[in-house]
Amino acid sequence: DAMVIQNPRYQVTQFGKPVTLSCSQTLNHNVMYWYQQKSSQAPKLLFHYYDKDFNNEADTPDNFQSRRPNTSFCFLDIRSPGLGDAAMYLCATSTGTGYEQYFGPGTRLTVT
Amino acid sequence: ILNVEQSPQSLHVQEGDSTNFTCSFPSSNFYALHWYRWETAKSPEALFVMTLNGDEKKKGRISATLNTKEGYSYLYIKGSQPEDSATYLCASKAAGNKLTFGGGTRVLVKP
Questions:
Q1: Per-residue pLDDT band at A106 (split at 50, 70, 90)
Q2: pLDDT digits (tens, 9 = 90+) for B44-61
Q3: Mean pLDDT on A17-33
Q4: Is B84 helix (H, G, I), strand (E, B) or coil?
Q5: Phi and psi at residue B83, to the nearest 5°
Q6: Of A6, A61, A106, B70, whose Cβ has the fewest other Cβ atoms within 10 Å?
Q7: Which of B33, B14, B10 has its CA nearest to residue B104?
Q8: Nearest by CB: A98 against B32, B45, B103
Q9: Which of B43, B100, B102 has its CB closest to that of A4?
Q10: A40, A44, A54, A55: which to substitute to probe chain B, counting the most B Cβ within 10 Å?
């Protein structure tokens, strides 16, 4: 089945130690998104790619970076994780912005 | 309304009972309203995408209505079952803008 895959499902990292979360899709969608969700809050869009075009949200901290080497893969890099970056990170895809989004199961990040 | 707001934040429903909850969103420059169901340990799954005022959509026992003039949508679950237990997220898109999510309504159906 076509799907959005996120690895790992759970990630523990140390304060200040760089960490990379990965997302892959078999849907061949143009758009890939990264969301951060903290407990009981709304998922917050960090950035998205439309094909190779990177779109950063204005309030996304510089500590968060992203790479999309090809259509299928997208990575979220947190350069120096702080305790406040502990959250669920969701990857999603869509055929175009504003269209129905297809989500991965998320990666829950713990920062110790 | 500047943000997307969902109420209640959580609710408990007895198995077999029907329930509904609300999503409020900015009505200006409205483009689309999405509903997603997010079961624990699974991926959020799209339920509906609605665009027109007065839209009503249905999938099994779950249905949704849309009022774009006043900026709200209701999601209804008829005859709740334990498998309906999930967080239900709505998200609104204004023209030219990104999808903005609400905080979700967590539904727990008690057998």
A1: very high
A2: 999 999 999 999 999 999
A3: 96
A4: helix
A5: -70, -10
A6: B70
A7: B10
A8: B32
A9: B43
A10: A40
Average pLDDT over residues A73-85: 97
β-sheet with B62-67: strand ranges across = B5-7, B19-24, B72-77, B62-67, B56-59
Q: For the purposes of burial, counting CB atoms within 10 Å of the CB of B48, is it exposed (0-12), middle (13-18) or buried (19 or more)?
A: buried
Closest residue to B9, CB basis, from A40, A45, A104:
A40
Model confidence at B42, pLDDT cuts 50, 70, 90, reads: very high
What number is the average pLDDT over the span A52-63? 94
Instruction: Label residue B9 exposed, middle or buried (CB < 10 Å: 0-12, 13-18, 19+).
Output: middle
In the predicted model, is pLDDT for residue B1 greater than 60?
no
Residues 2-21 of A with CB under 8 A from B: 3-4
Contact criterion met (CB below 8 Å) for B26 and B92: yes
